[in-house]
From TrEMBL:
Upper classification of the organism: Bacteria, Pseudomonadati, Pseudomonadota, Gammaproteobacteria, Pseudomonadales
Protein name (Swiss-Prot/TrEMBL): Flagellar biosynthetic protein FlhB
InterPro entries hit by this protein: T3SS_substrate_exporter, T3SS_substrate_exporter_C
Parts forming coiled coils: none
Gene Ontology biological process: protein secretion
Source organism: Pseudomonas versuta
Keywords: Bacterial flagellum protein export, Cell projection, Cilium, Flagellum, Protein transport, Transport
Function: Required for formation of the rod structure in the basal body of the flagellar apparatus. Together with FliI and FliH, may constitute the export apparatus of flagellin.
Amino acid sequence: MNRQPEPRQAIALKYDGKQAPTLTAKGDDELAEAILKLAREYEVPIYENAELVKVLARMELGDSIPQELYRTLAQIIAFAWQLKGKFPEGFDPDAGPVERDITPPK
């Protein structure tokens, strides 16, 4: 049985630090490669997770990420910020890891 390879997918999120991240771009194959190329050109951190991309690619452009994914995306955003040497206001990167509940209020 010949299985077709899964198309290469990519998504882009925008996060302003105030609202939930929103989906700003999504695409398969050539469009996915163009999204990744732009990210590299502008030194936007790239996080590869095919399963997460499949979930987020079902959203419409401009949609905020679902509440169920807040924790996952918060960890990815925090990692991306650290790569760029950025930290939230009042955060002391030398204080060591701190366990925090980042579950949004209901």
